[in-house]
Amino acid sequence: MTGPAMVGDSFRLGYRFQRHWDVAMASAFFFGELGAGLFVVAMLSPAWPVLALGLLITGIGKPWFHLTHMGVPQKSWRAILRPDRSWTSRGLVGIVVFSGAGVLYTAAVATDGLVPLGEVWRIVAFLAALVVMTYQGFAMSHSTAIAIWSTALMPIASLLYALAGGAALMLVLEGLGLAAAALPALPAIGLGVTVALLVLQASLLHAAHNGTPGAKLSARLLLRGRYAPAYYGLVLGAGIALPLIALVADGQSLVGRIVAAVGLLVGFYAFRVLIFKVGVYEPVMRFGGIGAPR
Amino acid sequence: MARWGMVFSLARCIGCNACVVACKTENRLPDDIYFTRTFVEEVGDFPSVRRVYIPTLCNHCEDAPCEKACPSGATYTRDDGIVMVDQDRCIGCSACAVACPYDARSMIEEPSNNRGLFGGAEAPAAEPDVVDRWRAGTVVKCDFCSRRVDQGLSPACVAVCPTEARIFGDLDDPDSAPSRLVRSRNGAPPLPEKNTKPKVFYIDY
């Protein structure tokens, strides 16, 4: 169901899907948030291979997909030029700082303190990771063009999904004994973040349903439209219900953790793709009583 | 310094799309790229039905969200209020395109007109700037035909409009045609709730 209001690329007045940010961009968002989230969660029990994995996911996955998306990738360095006004620029500054301070902190952990100022790098890397985890949500909420994105819940969604992704990977890595010390509270943390994701999804839909006509249409596309099967099956089913069941049933076993982690990551990626897919531009005028808008 | 703006008279527009053709010709746009469009909408119930045409283009907003979203500084506003894209600076991230509430920006994927005359690199003698006018991978949009405006001409879409449904002029001049129309006929911007302060207005009659 797209409804008669969707007009595609025709010369009709109506709603149009945003088509500029696609799966490549969603993948860049996913890997950026996942790597930074893993890095932050790994700080609870810092082992250098896990920290390095977080850095690699953000440092390689995110730029790779961003460059795939860019129209002129050879000039992409220019994206750092306007941190005074653009969230994209601020995020790029965050990624650079996160990569630098993250490498130094990881080196300090790996060499057991041989790298000087380890505590400073830890704090700087943590703050920069927070920027990487949230700036994409700020960039989306800053856009009033796409009504379902234009909400303060977007940065919160970025933060929660980053933490969920990080917790998901950490559940498996810690289960494999790769954390520096055992983290008995990790399943409870995963459970808490998953419950928070459920509240977040309900809040997003509630805000969209009570928002502008464009936001309503996006919510309808998620709940009853062409993207409903993916939303129910992947975002809610695999991404929230499955991890909840797995963690409540057997959060300490490796199998339970792997099931929860796979579900969380599938839900995370599906949310990133779907939130782009259901974004719509509103018509330049409202329907009915056509004429100059009052 | 002028502050250029435009008024669309919905009553005058007959949907002939001469403006669309003139824009594509003037700007040598690839097949699937439009800087201006004339949307159509049927309103009313039988037997009292009418068709309304709604011209659209970049609204050259005072508080342009595209400019704020641009991370490379490629989008900027000239002193005369025309919002421009510097193709040398554009990195093709599309942040501006998702920030524009009016869907007025397009990505040039592969400019067909860059192929030149008969597929070669040559340009017609009368139009030396046909080739390489647009760079692939950059975002483009209406610039009120800034090259024509700089020469004292009106934008191509305004010049060809047979019903004078598009009225172009200086919004800072209280005696200019668009200023008088906005004032006397309650000109309203598109999607005013987006708070972008467009310099394009619509009037009913």
Helix-strand blueprint:
The complex is a heterodimer of chains A (294) and B (205).
Chain A: E1 16-17, H1 23-42, H2 48-69, H3 87-110, H4 118-142, H5 153-175, H6 186-209, H7 213-223, H8 228-250, H9 254-277, E2 280-281
Antiparallel strand pairs in A: 1-2
Chain B: E1 4-9, H1 18-27, E2 37-45, E3 48-56, H2 65-69, E4 75-77, E5 83-85, H3 95-99, E6 106-107, E7 139-140, H4 146-150, H5 156-160, E8 166-170, H6 177-184, E9 200-203
Parallel strand pairs in B: 1-9
Antiparallel strand pairs in B: 1-8, 2-3, 4-5, 6-7
Could you please describe the fold and organization of this structure?
The complex is a heterodimer of chains A (294) and B (205). Chain A has 294 residues and is mainly α. Chain A has 9 helices and 2 strands. Chain A has a two-stranded antiparallel sheet. Mean pLDDT of chain A is 92; it is low at 289-294. Chain B has helices spanning 18-27, 65-69, 95-99, 146-150, 156-160, 177-184, and strands at 4-9, 37-45, 48-56, 75-77, 83-85, 106-107, 139-140, 166-170, 200-203. In chain B, the strands form 4 sheets. In chain B, strands 8-1-9 form a 3-stranded mixed sheet, covered by helices on one side. Chain B has a two-stranded antiparallel sheet with strand order 2-3. In chain B, strand 2 (37-45) and strand 3 (48-56) form a beta hairpin.
